[in-house]
Automatic annotation (TrEMBL):
It comes from the Eukaryota. Keywords: DNA-binding, Nucleus, Transcription, Transcription regulation. One of its GO terms (cellular component) is nucleus. Residues 81-167 form the TF-B3 domain. This is B3 DNA binding domain. CDD domains: B3_DNA. InterPro entries: B3_DNA-bd, DNA-bd_pseudobarrel_sf, REM16-like. It holds the Pfam family B3. The lineage of its organism: Eukaryota, Viridiplantae, Streptophyta, Embryophyta, Tracheophyta. It is found in: Nucleus. One of its GO terms (molecular function) is DNA binding.
Amino acid sequence: MTPTSPDTLRRSSRARNLISTYQEEFIEDRPMRKRSRSISSTSYIARPLDEIRVATNRERAFALECAKNFLSKLQSEHPSFVKSMVRSHVYSCFWLGLPRQFCKDHLPSNELKMVLEDENGVEYDTIYIGSRAGLSGGWRGFALDHKLDDGDAVVFELVEPARFKMA
């Protein structure tokens, strides 16, 4: 006999408990707070929950394809790459690892102040950590101001030794 409904006979006489999901139990009832440096902080998400989305594989692939098409039409001599955003890049810890080979070929191995410039010419100061091949301080502001989401793809073009033009 295969169970077909919640009213199907069970071996146990114990009442069936509905299982809540992690999201229902822990996320939806919590008020949104900004990240705190306090050890007692329980939330590290910097955007309201209703703005957080999880990209499907199809959405992620489409965004990546669009960014690569944009890059191919850019016709620039500057070194560049496309980076697909994930949750830790845009919602919580705000660490952005860059492609290691790109960093090895075009960036120094030490810490460096870098400028990120968006399509409108607005500049964001950030810290590049060469030993870890990634962007730290300042990346958070860029990601939040541009409301980058999981699955978005960003084009990075190194137009000067310490300046990325972003699209």
